[in-house]
Amino acid sequence: MSKLVKLTARGVEAAAKGTEVRDTEIRGLRLRVSPKGLRTFILVTRYPGQKNASRRSLQATNLKDAREEAAEWKRLVRRGVDPHEEEERKKRAVLRKRMNTFLSVAEAYIADLHRRQLRTADVAEQQIRRELVPPWGELPIADITRADVITLVQAIRDRPAPYSAHNVLSHCRALFDWAINLDSYGLEASPCDHVKPGKLIGQKRPRQRVLTDDEIRAFWRATDRLGYPYGHLFRMLLLTGQRRTEVSDARWPEFNFESKVWTVPAERFKSDSENIVPLTADVLGLLCALPRFKSGDYLFSASFGKAPADDFFRRKTQLDALMLEELRKVDGEATLPPFVLHDLRRTVRTRLSSLRVPDHIAEMVIGHGRRGLQRVYDQHKFVEEMREALEAWNARVRAIVNPPPANVVPPAGRA
Predict the structure, then answer these.
(1) H or E element in which residue 9 lies
(2) CB-CB contact of 345 with 243 (8 Å)
(3) CATH classification code of 3-90
(4) pTM score
């Protein structure tokens, strides 16, 4: 037989073993003390879907919490909600939040990009890991707001890095749209909706950065100081004019040293066909200086050939610092305007024009395929023409990097 009393904290402690005490403050709340002295708070009421009242244990272990929990249960019951089902729903919601962190969704998105073999997968992965994961990784993806997106993009814009800001916003938008389409992450709308890149960042203007002779000289000396793999990789970008991922992901089987050509397979080239790159004497010399690994066949690798080098953000920062040091050895007040690795391709293309290489050959050198009827009917590969163009460009690089000594005027003879 239960006793009806106004429970107090002291009364809870003093309750005898094997008894049950009803609280006068919260109707249905009871303290049950087992024969071994275990104290449990229960709520006796008619729960949704039941004809008669039943007893259920509360989670609370003290009187104050038990009264609050019992009062909340009674409110749920009046609304026709089963408290146990509500607790389970909350647990599932918490679990979903833990599972659906931005990091976990980003990993799934990156894996899907690679599964679909998108040529932009490597670049997207790098920017997502570098720019989005550090600030948002542990946040539930559904908690990321439009204000969060704007704050992050503005910070990148103000570095200043407006081109990166545009690219990051684009990757961010694609990731959230992908997650919404799957309908698996609790997202109903993208925080990137109604974020206008033109107004937030400014219009995305075509890049026009081309390295000067002094900068190319500083670049060459800086890459020598960087060493393998990034110093050699950056040099090959300048010597060949190819895209970064095409060079960084290059593997030894792609190179034919007998015919002196490098064949970039279609799955790694930004087209639906393979790309043939003639190997000049300078590039062959660079390749011969590279280590060969038994555990993998990537040319440029920090893991003994098992995986391609991919630490570009940090290594490019080092390259910039070393280039500035080299420039200031000549001019103590020299500056280095910002440039990205892709600007090396523009530098090569621009210099090819200055060397009077025909436009269609220069375009093919940097991997821009022919279009229209020319692509269909003219199947000549122009390998030797491209080789001549690259040899001329490499000779120009040598002249810039190792300029001939200035002419010395002999002293005038005595009268």
Answers:
(1) helix 9-14
(2) yes
(3) 3.30.160
(4) 0.63
